[in-house]
Design a protein that fits this description.
The chain is mostly helical and 429 residues long. It has one domain. It contains 14 helices and no strands. α2 (14-65) packs across α8, α3 (71-81) runs parallel beside α9 (260-293) and α9 runs parallel beside α12. The longest helix is centred in the middle third of the chain and has 57 residues, at 157-213. It is globular, with a radius of gyration of 21 Å.
């Protein structure tokens, strides 16, 4: 193939174009993240990093509850209905009723139980002010999810890349500024304020397109879309809320059973994992869900899955091998005092590789609203992770939790493959 043909092939390859842009975004994030994580590790230590992990998990829970989990529904219906402004108007009218309820209930819960939440997360009420601040920020969290859903549904990956870069850089500047001025308290405040910055960036970069697609005359529930969004709400609450709650509880268990510093080591490993796994998040929402939503044939589905695997898995695998080979350097550079992190890399990386492979296929559940299949596999998967973690931590310490992460995704992958193969088989019959 000539160089000219190679360039043409690349331009026509939507997935490769997304990956190339994603790689730029991730590269910038990783460079900035190395600096920030190192600064956090040296300034607030492992115990402080554990507290940062707790507030990030709470923010993850609020991301789902404040929007009532409608994100993937918005992605799906924006992708399918982008040419039908009338149906889009009905969908968004219903969506904003959903998020109004979610925002009110989430903010009220944070205000009423701020002391109890702070005690559960941090062991005392010293940081209760952060919980109260989050109750004010809740509307911004919900609007972020709605606007991001439109962005992903339209597969506007170039604007997605701009928003990711700008919002990450601005939130990083805010975090570093508050860290240097207010120490740990400043970090927690900066994390709580990040959704406001993200919302401002989305409106600035994507505002004109949002006004084009989100047009609402009045708020009115549409029965067909309310039922459809309810399915996505259940899916999101089962996955996002439960996984963040389990991480919070496991971090608390490590602090109580071993030490808060060990909880910080695991949190640092999770931060690294989430930094390179962000590579896949844009792929799923910008490409996989919209693509799977339009596929109804088993052969076409299988071809698309193999196409995704051939494109991303070798790149992802190579990246993970490099991370493992240079794990000691990574720890020395980013987390110089976190010497007990090194044994966690092997299990976390293996688990993440299988996780990516399984999530590609599992997004069929979201694309096709396979509620029962999604809920069953998620609950079994999370139950396995939590149960195995509590069992293995007794013999292997913190390493037992990342071992549980690996074992859990092997079983989850097999479950997903069997269920989706069976769903296509029964549909054909």
């Amino acid at each position: 193939m000539s160089f000219k043909n190679l360039i043409y092939s690349f331009r026509e390859h939507t997935l490769l174009k997304m990956l190339s842009l994603n790689s730029i975004v991730i590269g910038i994030r990783l460079i900035v993240s190395v600096f920030i994580q190192n600064l956090l590790a040296e300034t607030i230590g492992a115990s402080g990093l554990s507290k940062v992990g707790q507030i990030r998990n709470l923010l993850g829970i609020l991301t789902s509850t404040s929007s009532l989990g409608v994100f993937n529904g918005i992605v799906k219906y924006t992708s399918e209905l982008k040419e039908d402004k009338g149906l889009l108007k009905k969908m968004f009218s219903t969506t904003f009723i959903f998020i109004s309820v979610g925002v009110f209930l989430s903010a009220l819960f944070l205000l009423l139980f701020s002391n109890e939440i702070a005690t559960y997360l941090f062991g005392n009420t010293d940081y209760v002010f952060v919980i109260k601040l989050l109750s004010i920020v809740v509307p911004a969290i919900a609007l972020n999810r709605v606007f991001s859903g439109v962005l992903n549904g339209l597969s506007a990956y170039k604007k997605y890349a701009k928003i990711e870069i700008f919002s990450y850089l601005l939130s990083s500047v805010l975090l570093v500024s508050f860290l240097l001025k207010f120490n740990l308290e400043g970090v927690l405040i900066a994390i709580a304020l990040t959704p406001v910055l993200q919302l401002l960036v989305i409106v600035f970069v994507f505002g004109k397109t949002l006004r084009k697609y989100i047009k609402i005359d009045s708020l009115k529930l549409n029965s067909s879309y309310s039922r459809a969004l309810l399915v996505f709400m259940i899916m999101s609450l089962v996955s996002t809320v439960l996984v963040n709650f389990i991480e919070i509880d496991l971090r608390t268990q490590i602090s109580n059973r071993i030490s808060e510093d060990e909880a910080g080591n695991w949190t640092a490993m999770l931060f690294l994992s989430k930094n390179y796994m962000v590579f896949s998040s844009g792929l799923f929402t910008l490409y996989v869900i919209p693509k799977f939503a339009r596929i109804h044939d088993r052969g076409e589905f299988k071809n698309e899955v193999f196409h995704i695997y051939k494109t991303i898995m070798p790149l992802f695998g190579l990246g993970m091998i490099l991370v493992y080979l240079f794990r000691n350097i990574i720890v020395d550079v980013i987390y110089p005092d976190f010497k007990y992190m090194e044994p966690l890399f092997k299990w976390q990386l293996l688990g993440d590789f299988i996780k990516l492979a399984s999530l590609v296929v599992a997004h069929q559940f979201l694309a096709k609203k396979m509620l029962l299949s999604f809920v069953i596999t998620e609950i079994i998967s999370l139950g396995l992770f939590y149960g195995l973690s509590l069992f293995l931590v007794n013999d292997y310490g913190t390493e037992g939790i990342v071992m549980a992460h690996f074992y859990r995704y092997i079983i989850y992958f097999l479950m997903v493959l069997i269920i989706i193969w069976y769903s296509f088989k029964t549909k054909k019959d």
